[in-house]
Amino acid sequence: xxxNDIKQFKVVLLGAGNLATSLGLAxxxxxxxxEQVYSxxxxxxxxxxxxxxxxxxxxxxxxxxSADVYLLxxxxxxxxxxxxxxxxxxxxxxxxxxAGSVPMSVFNNLAVNHGVLYPLQxxxxxxxxxxxxxxCLIEGANAFSQDVLWRIANAxxxxxxxASSEDRRVMHLGAVFGCNFVNLCxxxxxxxxxxxxxxxxxxxxxxxxxxxxxxxxxxxxAQTGPAVRKDKKVMQGQMQLIDDADRRxxxxxxxxxxxxxxNK
Amino acid sequence: xxxNDIKQFKVVLLGAGNLATSLGLAxxxxxxxxEQVYSxxxxxxxxxxxxxxxxxxxxxxxxxxSADVYLLxxxxxxxxxxxxxxxxxxxxxxxxxxAGSVPMSVFNNLAVNHGVLYPLQxxxxxxxxxxxxxxCLIEGANAFSQDVLWRIANAxxxxxxxASSEDRRVMHLGAVFGCNFVNLCxxxxxxxxxxxxxxxxxxxxxxxxxxxxxxxxxxxxAQTGPAVRKDKKVMQGQMQLIDDADRRxxxxxxxxxxxxxxNK
Lengths: 264, 264
Hints:
Two copies of one chain form a homodimer. Chain A has two domains: about 160 residues, Rossmann fold (3-Layer(aba) Sandwich), CATH 3.40.50.720; about 90 residues, ProC-like, C-terminal domain (N-(1-d-carboxylethyl)-l-norvaline Dehydrogenase, domain 2, Orthogonal Bundle). Chain A is about 45% helix and about 15% strand. An eight-stranded mixed β-sheet of chain A has the order 3-2-1-4-5-6-7-8, with helices on both faces. The model of chain A has no long low-confidence stretch (mean pLDDT about 95).
């Protein structure tokens, strides 16, 4: 591997989902060449491979054994099995996964050079994201792996941080609260409005300002609404509007938590 | 009242909190003159009155009886009591409250001309918001009241909608899900990161993209993360990181709800 020009690294990308798509596009945009795209479904591999000017494979046996970097952007539960097979390909390569909650040790005894590149973002195929400002948490098993990861990540993003597997795991939990659970709240807002034929679009300025606010102040300080004011009458009135048992439990629990946190 | 130039309306603003501050500033910026600002605490009334070039009062007896519009931006539970006293002042004036969950009927038998102007946004005193794009839901008790409200709201915002008390109540519940509960999720993300000395700032690109996504697609379609994938291993691992009993209940409940909604 020519360490002076990392962009000459041959990259094999495993995965063709939301993250793999954004990552593949960012790699190519940054000057890397992606040799192969692997997915269990050839069609998915082919779709991404076409865009990246790579070849598509749907069988691990067909993977090149001459790549410098194997990037595994797969579902967490698929990782251990694929790693077992892929790490045999090239003992000199660097093997990298992209998962928040899978420790780096998943590569132990299977590859010398390995590490993790975890982009802290929510991805969708429909609109691949610019990697430029995405925080990338990296971890390398040895100095060489870490250097390679550091240089790849810095070619993709201006927001690169070293993070241990344990830090990354906590970060991933933070991301579930700050993204996945937030998005559930958006869904529940949408369902609430739909029940009376009201337009979700009316909520977008509020959704945007709620996110913008936590750039200016801590989220606890930014809290507004009936729960933080302990406005029981409003809360009881709102509970009466909710039919679904889960949603009622959620409303009560979140209101209680807001009140406790604000008065801690 | 000279109906041809609503900006010559004399306005009395009751309240000096987050909403009253943003609303008062928007009124003055749009050319209205605010005569008086009322708050139970004179200091709060004075602070806002100074900015609005109005006089400050802390006693309802001191309110002018010659205003054209009385705007009540008060806490929900303070409204009925204040309305009782204020509506006696001028039988020709329009009386308006700004609360999501208080029906317009709170004015019944107390004022002929009355209505509601509900700005669907989260306000903070630190940074008064531009009203321009804030959805304003209005409701008027009669044609005159509705016309006055329509014209005031349109002077403040380009996003004005007629909405009944029942629509507004549902909208308010949507806002609690889409803003207050979202903000609790931000707080829990922040607390999670703090527990390991990690910086909340790392989550801001993710928070922004999560909000941006629901401009492009429905929130259910935008859902990502371990719960929608039903990745039990990740979810169990994350539960182990959570000490607090409320947070564990919340994690389980929200994960279940995401999974159910995505597979409905």
